[in-house]
Amino acid sequence: MKGHSQNKVNPILLEVFKNRFSSISEEMGVTLNRTAFSPNIKERRDFSCAVFDANGDMIAQAAHIPVHLGSMPLSVKSAIDAANWQEGDMVMLNDPFKGGTHLPDITIVAPLFARGDKPSFYVANRAHHADVGGMSSGSMPLARSIFQEGLIIPPLKIVERGKIDRKIMGFLLNNVRTSTEREGDFAAQIMANITGVRRTTQLIDKYGLDVVEFYSSALMDYAERMTRDTISRIPDGLYEFEDYMDDDGFGNERIPIHVSIEIKGDQARLDFTKSHDQVEGSINAVYAITLSAVLYVFRSLVKRDIPTNAGCLRPIDVLTRKGSIVDAEFPSSVAGGNVETSQRIVDVVLGALSQALPEEIPAAHQGTMNNIAIGGVDPSNGQPFAYYETIGGGMGATARSDGESAVHCHMTNTLNTPVEALEYSYPFLVTEYSIRRGTGGRGKHRGGDGIVREIRLLADSEVTVLSERRLIPPYGLFGGEPGAVGRNIVSRNGVAEKMGGKLSVALKKGDVVRVETPGGGGYAEPES
């Protein structure tokens, strides 16, 4: 680019590239959203898209799913290491022990060749598939091993030189319950990457490869500087907090997650090594999830509009212990670690930081994603179906305001599945969808209220629910009261039965499953 100096960052161009890279990620998301088959992707938008440099470091991610923030780069690096890349290739993977989160989250990575025989950039997207096999519909089972949770996909080429490998695709589709829907969602992910490669190529054509590479690196440096500035404003010190997972579904209760945060200048060191050992049930989190939760919290503290990229993590050290609930080892079950344990990691990090930043940190949110998966055969067409959804709840109150009610909180950023779309796509009748009034914790500022979602089944179905905060309520801060715990209720032949936080049951046509989600914690003592 004429007049450009490689030694000096032009602030105007930096802003231009910040928005260009973000818009590429956003347009990838639009493509994926509009071409997907499943309600979980096209309605709830349970996906993320991002652009990476030649080393697999994230340059920019669209404002999609926070739990994918720190984990997708690890998948991209695994893909880079595993593949002999050629133009037109794409690599697919979901292995949680190679940078993934849990098996339904499938990542597809594509290279961009701008010079020579090595990729100059990569684009990638991750989408939650409503079924990837395993012991129960929806692939979110109460499992004791990852082998029970679904098909484990190592990094492999699903597209080679622009052509889908039909043998691999056939193998994948033969191991899931809803093959037509899965094939449509895979095609949407591939199209999203094609969009990302095309737009990034156009950026290079306009500015030149050297300039694009220079500003992609400068954007990471900028994000690092802003994150360091944010950390430097936190008082130096050591801050500790501990909270608990309710249970693992197999009798292990009150499972502690502990963090010690040391702030020293513009560096933060988070030590999770005192957390509990990995457990029998599926609430184990792999390291990528812990990294994502930490990145989410510190990125949320940055008040400037910075790109979310690899630079945000440079001032942050995350220590874990292999074989613990926050850094589980193969072959532990992990389906709930991504969706449930990630939320508790956020709770403990925010709880620790509340001691240093009482005016900025909210009380505990609902602390769960209230995962529900239902599968069976639709009697109207004889075809199998697999429904998956997370349900919102109450957000914690802050020093300035009440918590929001009936929202997806922290590590999830999806929409809901509208009642009309739900009943159109599945043999369900939604008999109640409402705000669960009065469930937010009392305080000077009150926590947000939870949600009630009640579904009458119009077909025999197997139902799985993975949820938390059914025993231990979301904490309040500085005298604020805890939010109400959630409840799961199953009605068979008109008889209601309160269930635990983790359940797997076979229900008949006409039976009802009801999920009542927790409220958020209150902030400060209630005023008389």
Which helices and strands appear, and what pairs or packs with what?
Elements: H1 11-35, H2 39-42, E1 47-53, E2 58-61, H3 72-82, E3 90-93, E4 105-112, E5 121-128, E6 156-160, E7 163-164, H4 166-173, H5 179-207, H6 209-232, E8 237-247, E9 253-264, E10 267-271, H7 287-301, E11 316-319, H8 337-353, E12 371-378, E13 383-389, H9 419-425, E14 428-436, E15 450-457, E16 461-466, E17 487-492, E18 495-499, E19 502-507, E20 512-516
Parallel strand pairs: 10-11
Antiparallel strand pairs: 1-2, 1-5, 3-4, 3-6, 4-5, 6-7, 8-9, 9-10, 12-13, 12-16, 14-15, 15-20, 16-19, 17-18, 17-20
How would you explain this protein's 3D organization?
The strands form four sheets. A seven-stranded antiparallel sheet has the order 2-1-5-4-3-6-7, sandwiched between helices. A hairpin with a 4-residue loop joins strand 1 (47-53) and strand 2. The N and C termini lie far apart (66 Å). Helices cover 27% and strands 25% of the residues. The chain has helices at 11-35, 39-42, 72-82, 166-173, 179-207, 209-232, 287-301, 337-353, 419-425, and strands spanning 47-53, 58-61, 90-93, 105-112, 121-128, 156-160, 163-164, 237-247, 253-264, 267-271, 316-319, 371-378, 383-389, 428-436, 450-457, 461-466, 487-492, 495-499, 502-507, 512-516. It folds into two domains: 11-224, no CATH class; 362-528, no CATH class. The chain is α+β, with helices and mostly antiparallel strands and 528 residues long. The chain contains nine helices and 20 strands.
